[in-house]
Amino acid sequence: MRIGVYDPYLDDMGGGEKYMVTLATSLLPGNEVDIFWDNRDDLDRVAQRFSLDVANLRVVPNIFSQKVGTIKRLIETKKYDAIIILSDGSIPLVSSKKLFLHVQQPIPNAKKNIKSRLKLKRVNKVFCNSYFTKSFVDKDLGVDSIVVYPPVSLHPKNVSKENIILHVGRFRVRNVGVSDYKKQDVMVEVFKKMVKKGLKKWKFVIAASVASSSEDEVKLFEEFVNKTKDFPIEFEVNKSNAELWDLYSKAKIYWHASGFGEDLEKHPEFAEHFGISTVEAMGAGDVPVVINAGGQKEIVEDEVTGFLWNNLDELADKTMLLTREDKILATMSAAAKKKAKDFAGDRFADDVRRMVYA
Hints:
There is one protein chain. By secondary structure, the protein is of the alpha/beta class. It has a seven-stranded parallel β-sheet with strand order 3-2-1-4-5-6-7. It is elongated, with a radius of gyration of 21 Å.
């Protein structure tokens, strides 16, 4: 089969890009797989960031660019047996034998006119990254989507654990309509209060991806870092996947707060849609203390594989409990490690192939 894959955010190097590039590589055995994009360097940067082998993926001109007309797109897509697109709810007109749409977040403003309904009839399957996303996508688009959980590769390292609370995430996420989507400001303020109330010999490490090509983003990040002076808060910037596993392996606790303070009934897209970094942290034995919202609830079983929290007092109190009670920490760490395996292995590749070959 000849298969084409399109991710409109390929130059963003986030978790969504890991999903789409891993999907493409999963289809390589026995197939020709093309990435629709105009800059091979962007694909290579994603590959380096997430330790992916993209040598056999071909980069072809981006026929989904606004510069390309509909007729040319129809001519080019007719060459493909299947095309897989990361969609924001829009449905491009293509002439491939099969068309699959991947949606990674709720799309409350999706068009439901006759034109979009007709285009949807051309789609073989819509697939989502979590049941949280599916619950909104099915309603928004009027489809019965399937869930293909994101690819998670577990590479814990045999190093000694340290008194580290870890968070991993993009500093600013381009395609989500809220400035501090990961709520890193919020977590910093909670940790500061914990220190002021007596937390000792622990540090908070934020592993952030920062767009070095954006002067505005770099400036905002520098201002953010300056707010943490005189506290045991450290930053690891634009680390490779292998370097992140060093951090996961050393940390004891993992924090995640996307969606806090937002009206998630009105804007469910502001919650974490799945939470790859949470699973990766659990795979290294970190105990997750994460917000009780979005896809996090599909990953963490409260009081078994970690803690879910509803307000900042709970975040602080449940974290403080883990810093004091070594036995509870050890028990939850083992349970978290076991649960993470449910999302790893060949599961993602098998799910993708099953869908495309059906």
